[in-house]
Design goal:
It is built from 5 helices and no strands. It is an all-alpha fold.
Length: about 110
């Protein structure tokens, strides 16, 4: 089940939060996505989580992208992501419709 919001966020004081966000940005820039994710999710840094979502989407990790988009609670991004996934599913379903016909034609040719 997909839940909108960030259930993993922790409450930290603003000074610590700012320091952690800087460190998370540093990790993200260096390519240490796992460390950046831990920080961004923990302090509920929406901009960082959105960058993670975009990163995962661009790198074809759709499950992680979906999780991150829903954590941002950014309705525009969530809608855009869902629309793209619906189009992809529709395309796959349309592709599947072609294969039974091909299989049936091959079976008919063999007889």
């Amino acid at each position: 089940m997909i839940i909108k919001g960030n259930k993993d966020k922790k409450i930290v004081d603003s000074k610590t939060r700012a320091q952690l966000i800087r460190k998370g940005n540093e990790f993200f820039t260096q390519g240490n996505i796992t460390a950046a994710e831990k920080i961004f999710v923990t302090v509920d840094y929406k901009d960082g989580i959105l960058r993670l979502a975009d990163y995962y989407f661009e790198n074809h990790d759709l499950y992680k992208a979906c999780d991150m988009y829903f954590r941002t609670e950014n309705n525009a991004k969530i809608s855009a992501f869902c629309e793209q996934m619906a189009k992809a599913i529709q395309k796959m379903l349309n592709e599947d419709k072609k294969y039974p016909k091909i299989i049936m034609e091959k079976e008919h040719e063999e007889k």
